[in-house]
């Protein structure tokens, strides 16, 4: 069915474009992953681009949902956000969800477009000329974000699209078509610009993803999805064919790296054998001056350095041998979080020892969503693959699918650890099953229920028996949290005001108070009144000093047969999490 075209750039056009781009990348993901040989042949560029756009689309949908919820009958409100609202949400969503080299660059491209679309002035940038200006600023800002730009990459494709858009005259549909044709031509030329692409017989994977995003832009404004044009068609064969061909060529790339451009690093490097072993990505809250120093330090540590963002929030991506030093540099610059460190597989062109066989799949793994870095460490020590959820920013289904893949197991137990993530986790489990992975979803509603499930996990017993045991342990664990109210609202315990301390038991407010320790003690007493054998306390960074000691003392005084364990959860949203088994 043809898409009803938009005539100019408004909030609905942003929403439509994000949705169509996500669909287009979903269709092309496996093909793009298969041709991913640069800068590291780790076969995840398509997935990274998909996750980046999924985060952008989710942010835009949230803005629309907020406006629609506030436009009740008789309110007189249109119930639709402005272009600035939607464009900023798109850029912010992409920034916080950006994955990998190409995903980080795509986030900067979207941010660059949003800066033009939301700029104040006498003439709004909502027509064809405005789209042309947005594409130009996007390409230029993305190039500036890369420490050592290399031609033959997504940067070249973005620049060509912007050049073609500047030469076009007409409405948004005309400009989008011109940009798309320019991108296709540049994509077809990438093997002639990068030796590693020519040896593998493929086009640049990041550039191929950008072409898909621009095709969605054309469909947004014309109602028709264009096909790959010109020589790009011959370079984008089926995913299956390229997968077999690309994997062989990727292994050969390390041996031939000396033929590549000397010193060309970052979007970068030619897949050299001696490349860094780790990819480090994190979000960073920092001032511009601190980020400038950070760029210089990270550039000296490794390659593939891309730092995007602004206004106090940045997404940092770099390939290094010393992952700890890269994180420490972020700590010196500001507050890093959502830290992801990936060791490149032994088959990647960027690592040594490419002759070793690929890693065998393990039989069973546990994938868990955790609300804080402290708990992530605890879960990881217990053998789980973790997905870190920042307060207010739950992971998308694609992020959970990626974690299931990263676990590299035939069987996976998925612990969402949040009642609101049940449907997201179910969608991720269904997607993973289509890839031949056996997935069991245990509907844990809190991280303390996940801890209980993980405690009885035995990978050597039958899968069904293990799932039943873990589900039983989670179900037998009551959970609570102590947090601070953000606004006035009605609750099961009465009306709370902004700033009140709330104690929630099994998701419902049971205690309203002014003191964190007193509220936590009241919650614990209510929970233990129904019995219990083990109390689990998880303290957030903002929990007051002495709260754990007071709760432990209360258990010793009043509940002699009950044991207590305490963990540090880090920046986890809730001040205290409580579990009673």
Describe this structure as you would to a colleague.
The chain is of the alpha/beta class. 49% of the residues lie in helices and 18% in strands. The longest helix is centred in the first third of the chain and has 25 residues, at 45-69. It is globular and about 80 Å long.
| Range of helix content | 40-55%
Total helix count? Answer: 20
> Radius of gyration in whole Å, from Cα?
25 Å
Q: What does the largest sheet look like?
A: 6 strands, mixed
Task: Sum this structure up briefly.
By secondary structure, this protein is of the alpha/beta class.
SSE layout:
Blueprint: H1 11-34, H2 45-69, H3 83-97, H4 100-117, H5 128-145, H6 154-167, H7 172-193, H8 195-200, H9 205-222, H10 231-235, H11 239-255, E1 278-285, H12 288-301, E2 302-310, E3 313-320, H13 323-333, E4 335-343, E5 362-370, H14 373-381, E6 385-388, H15 397-407, E7 409-415, H16 422-434, E8 438-441, H17 447-455, H18 463-475, E9 478-484, E10 489-491, E11 494-496, E12 501-505, E13 508-513, H19 516-528, E14 534-540, H20 547-558, E15 563-570, E16 576-580
Parallel strand pairs: 5-6, 5-7, 7-8, 14-15
Antiparallel strand pairs: 1-3, 1-4, 2-3, 9-12, 9-16, 10-11, 12-13, 14-16
Helix pairs in contact: 1-2, 1-3, 1-9, 1-11, 2-3, 2-4, 3-4, 4-5, 4-9, 5-6, 5-7, 6-7, 6-9, 7-9, 12-13, 15-16, 17-18, 19-20
């Amino acid at each position: 069915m043809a898409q009803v075209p938009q005539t100019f750039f408004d909030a609905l056009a942003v929403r439509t474009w994000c949705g169509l781009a996500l669909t287009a990348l979903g269709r092309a993901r496996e093909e793009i992953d298969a041709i991913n040989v640069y800068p590291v042949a780790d076969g995840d560029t398509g997935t990274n681009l998909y996750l980046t756009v999924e985060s952008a689309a989710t942010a835009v949908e949230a803005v629309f949902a907020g406006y629609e919820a506030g436009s009740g009958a008789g309110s007189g409100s249109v119930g639709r956000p402005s272009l600035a609202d939607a464009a900023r949400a798109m850029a912010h969503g992409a920034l916080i969800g950006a994955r990998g080299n190409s995903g980080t660059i795509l986030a900067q491209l979207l941010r660059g477009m949003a800066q033009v679309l939301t700029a104040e002035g006498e003439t709004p940038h909502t027509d064809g000329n405005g789209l042309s200006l947005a594409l130009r600023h996007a390409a230029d800002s993305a190039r500036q974000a890369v420490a050592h730009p290399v031609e033959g990459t997504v940067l070249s494709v973005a620049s060509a699209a912007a050049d073609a858009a500047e030469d076009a005259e007409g409405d948004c549909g005309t400009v989008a078509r011109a940009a798309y044709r320019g991108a296709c031509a540049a994509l077809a030329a990438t093997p002639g610009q990068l030796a590693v692409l020519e040896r593998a017989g493929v086009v640049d994977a990041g550039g191929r993803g950008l072409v898909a995003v621009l095709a969605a832009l054309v469909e947004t404004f014309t109602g028709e999805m264009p096909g790959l044009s010109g020589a790009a068609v011959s370079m984008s064969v089926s995913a299956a064919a390229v997968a077999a061909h690309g994997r062989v060529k990727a292994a050969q790339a390390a041996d031939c790296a000396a033929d590549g451009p000397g010193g060309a690093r970052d979007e970068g490097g030619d897949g050299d054998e001696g490349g860094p072993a780790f990819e480090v990505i994190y979000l960073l809250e920092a001032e511009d001056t601190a980020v400038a120093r950070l760029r210089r330090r990270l550039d000296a540590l490794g390659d593939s350095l891309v730092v995007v963002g602004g206004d106090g929030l940045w997404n940092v991506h770099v390939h290094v041998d010393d992952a700890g030093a890269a994180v420490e540099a972020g700590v010196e610059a500001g507050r890093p979080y959502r830290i992801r460190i990936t060791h490149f597989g032994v088959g990647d062109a960027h690592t040594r020892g490419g002759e070793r066989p690929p890693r065998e799949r393990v039989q069973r793994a546990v994938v868990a969503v955790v609300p804080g870095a402290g708990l992530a460490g605890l879960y990881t020590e217990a053998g789980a693959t973790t997905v870190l959820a920042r307060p207010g920013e739950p992971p998308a289904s694609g992020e959970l699918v990626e974690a299931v893949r990263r676990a590299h197991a035939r069987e996976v137990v998925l612990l969402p650890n949040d009642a609101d993530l049940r449907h997201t986790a179910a969608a991720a489990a269904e997607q993973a099953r289509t890839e031949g992975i056996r997935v069991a979803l245990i509907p844990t509603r809190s991280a303390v229920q996940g801890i209980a499930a993980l405690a009885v996990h035995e990978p050597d017993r039958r899968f069904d028996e293990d799932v039943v045991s873990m589900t039983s342990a989670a179900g037998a664990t009551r959970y609570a949290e102590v947090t601070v109210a953000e606004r006035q609202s009605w609750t099961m315990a009465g009306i709370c005001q902004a700033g009140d301390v709330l104690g929630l038991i099994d998701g419902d407010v049971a205690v309203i108070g002014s003191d964190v320790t007193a509220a936590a003690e009241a919650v614990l007493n209510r929970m233990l009144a129904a019995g219990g054998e083990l109390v689990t306390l998880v303290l957030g960074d903002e929990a007051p000093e002495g709260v754990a000691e007071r709760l432990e003392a209360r258990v010793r005084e009043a509940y002699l047969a009950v044991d207590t364990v305490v963990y540090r959860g880090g920046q986890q949203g809730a001040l205290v999490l409580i579990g009673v088994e």
